[in-house]
Design a protein that fits this description.
This protein has 167 residues and is α+β, with helices and mostly antiparallel strands. It is 14% helix and 23% strand. It has a 5-stranded antiparallel sheet. The two termini are 15 Å apart.
Length: 167
């Protein structure tokens, strides 16, 4: 279940529910002006992008050799994988690295996007806060389904405070 967190990219409200989401035009224009989106290549691929299922090592989710901790942006891909990463721009250490960089390319389409919180290698919470995609809260059902598959394989990957672990 989402955390209800409202981040800096949450302005503008969500879009109506859709099976997939494209970057909203206003954010695409902002990214073109900032050089994050370039017509020939589209969005760069964030160097920290990590497939959630491939990051599982035993009873922990690892990120850059350590147990994942903190807030990470994530995107649910068209084929149902959760990709997460930090906001790291390989071309400008002070530059932005928004959700579309988790997918990269000219038209990075997702089923959902937001922020996922980790602590000590466990998932604590997730939400739908992406100013670039502005997904409907209904899209969280797809994220829940993807996470439920992981949870069913290994409950220990989720914090004891995670909704499914509460009794």
């Amino acid at each position: 279940m989402g955390s209800g967190y409202k981040g800096a990219y949450s302005s503008g409200g969500s879009q109506p529910y859709q099976p997939t989401y494209h970057v909203v035009k206003s954010m695409l224009e902002l990214d073109r002006k900032a050089g994050i989106y370039k017509p020939g290549r589209g969005y760069f691929k964030n160097p920290t992008r990590t497939d959630l299922e491939h990051a599982i090592k035993g009873d922990s989710i690892m990120f850059e050799g350590e147990k994942a901790g903190g807030d990470f942006m994530y995107a649910l891909t068209i084929d149902g994988r959760i990709i997460f990463g930090k906001r790291r721009n390989p071309y400008n250490s002070n530059g932005r690295s928004p959700h579309p960089t988790l997918i990269g390319g000219k038209d990075p389409v997702v089923q959902a996007a937001g922020i996922m919180k980790f602590k000590n290698g466990q998932i604590v919470s997730f939400d739908d806060q992406s100013g670039h995609y502005r997904p409907s809260s209904k899209s969280m059902d797809k994220v829940k389904a993807s996470l439920r598959k992981i949870y069913n394989k290994n409950h220990d990957l989720f914090s004891k405070n995670f909704t499914w672990r509460k009794k």
